[in-house]
Specification:
Length: 461
């Protein structure tokens, strides 16, 4: 497992790439992040609820370094050009990597690159070690000639190897022994010249090399060891570890391929169920954040469709009932409904409310004497309320309080009530002589009540 050096304090490293290269780039980003390098990549670091463009711009501003991933796909992308151009203009450190042969953009052409097109492990080790070693810097190039930082055990091994090589050379010179040295270079660790002379030298060199290989723990390191020592002391162990790493990489590649296939299917179907199925099967998948982002508009569309169905159903019910109350209910339940304006048009405008006091001021009491109707010394008088029909229509009840000048207490405890039966607010009273006034109280259909008001009586034939 790679050493996990914490370099979070050095700031984020922004990866700029083409979405078509997601499989390669996400694998690289996860591996760099697992080794302790502070990588920022959109698919892993943007929450579903965030604005994509704003988060990209924010990450670019906060990042100290940027890794443009060069490929035939990325050099066709306007966003890719915008991102590395912004980095150049803002003097951020740029570390280009190339994953497939392409025409390198002019602004990046003068920068040295890490080449992933031939040996992935060698390129990865070089990039990883460089990112860990570098702090915030204004240097915009990747120094290809910069030597690697090797484990202390390997540095000691190199020193011993040099000393032993010199000893062998002196021994051969003094004893006139014809020795033909063979020079081989381990590509992954760039070791120095080795001399296959006597068993002691070979064993010491092999042991030191094995220590260095174990420290690197990469497929290319074990492969180069086996090339040099196919029957060496550690060859079986190296072969077993190499097989294990290959199996692990194959498994990872299979998982990535299955992830990609599942996401492509989910995208082609493009339903909530399809995306939820992907998220359930690949909770930590390469495309999980894309899934979380893409499912939101689908969920919103589903809610909108459900609301539209309820709106349509409520409107059809209101139309069938076709009453002001039905349309009012629709308006109350669907203030932003599709048929809101039409519902308002179908509700008749209510008549202006007439108050009880207003009615009192616009009616009169007519009294007719019934000479042929007597009760002893008393004559029958018929009282009736007269006025415009708009005022009479608004009345629910009229209360007359008979007023005798000699008996004012009648005002408080004696009244006749007449309800609205086609404006028949009339009653018959037996009384002595003329009464000039009477008290009246109006109660409207809205149950508002007028003050008890004294009205003059109008006698008619």
């Amino acid at each position: 497992m790679e050493n996990q050096t914490n370099i979070q304090s050095e700031g984020k490293i922004f990866i700029s790439y083409s979405r078509t290269d997601s499989r390669f780039v996400l694998k690289l980003a996860r591996r760099l992040r697992n080794s302790g390098i502070s990588i920022w990549i959109d698919q892993l670091d943007i929450d579903p609820s965030k604005n994509w463009d704003e988060e990209i711009e924010k990450a670019l501003k906060e990042s100290n370094r940027i890794i443009p991933v060069l490929s035939p796909n990325s050099i066709k992308s306007k966003n890719f050009f915008d991102e590395f151009s912004y980095a150049i203009e803002n003097k951020k450190q740029i570390i280009p990597i190339i994953i497939d042969h392409c025409d390198v953009p002019f602004r990046l052409a003068r920068l040295q690159r890490v080449d992933f097109t031939s040996n992935y492990e060698i390129a990865y080790n070089r990039l990883s070690e460089y990112l860990k070693k570098q702090s915030n810097s204004s240097d915009h190039t990747v120094p290809l000639s910069t030597p690697r930082t090797f484990p202390k055990s390997y540095i000691v091994g190199i020193s011993i190897s040099i000393v032993l090589s010199l000893a062998v050379w002196l021994f051969a010179k003094n004893h006139k022994t014809p020795i033909q040295p063979s020079r081989e270079t381990l590509e992954s660790i760039k070791t120095i010249d080795s001399l296959d002379k006597n068993d002691t030298i070979i064993e010491n060199e092999e042991h030191l090399l094995w220590d260095a290989v174990q420290a690197m723990n990469t497929m290319s390191a074990y492969f180069d060891y086996l090339k040099k020592y196919p029957n060496g002391k550690y060859s079986k162990e190296a072969a077993d570890i190499l097989t294990s790493l290959r199996n692990a990489e194959d498994l990872l590649n299979d998982q990535i391929e299955a992830d990609d296939q599942a996401w492509n299917i989910a995208q082609s179907i493009n339903t909530i169920e399809a995306i939820e199925n992907y998220m359930e099967n690949f909770p930590n998948g390469i495309h999980i954040q894309e899934a979380q982002r893409d499912i939101i508009p689908l969920q919103n569309k589903m809610k909108e469709d459900e609301q539209n169905k309820k709106d349509e159903s409520a409107w059809q019910n209101a139309v069938r009932e076709n009453t002001p109350n039905a349309y009012s209910t629709y308006l109350r339940n669907f203030p932003k409904g599709k048929y809101f304006n039409e519902a308002e048009e179908r509700i008749p405008n209510p008549e202006p409310t007439i108050t009880a006091d207003e009615i009192v001021n616009n009616v009169s009491i007519h009294v007719k004497i019934n000479q042929n109707d007597k009760d002893g010394d008393m004559t029958a008088y018929t009282y009736s309320l007269q006025g415009d029909s708009k005022y009479l229509d608004a009345i629910k009840e009229v209360r007359y309080v008979r007023n005798h000048d000699s008996f004012p207490e009648y005002k408080n405890n004696t009244y006749v009530s007449c309800t609205n039966r086609i404006h028949n607010f009339s009653f018959k009273s037996y009384q002595w002589g003329f009464i000039k006034t009477t008290y009246i109280t109006i109660i409207t259909k809205d149950n508002t009540r007028s003050e008890q008001t004294l009205l003059n009586l109008i006698y008619v034939n």
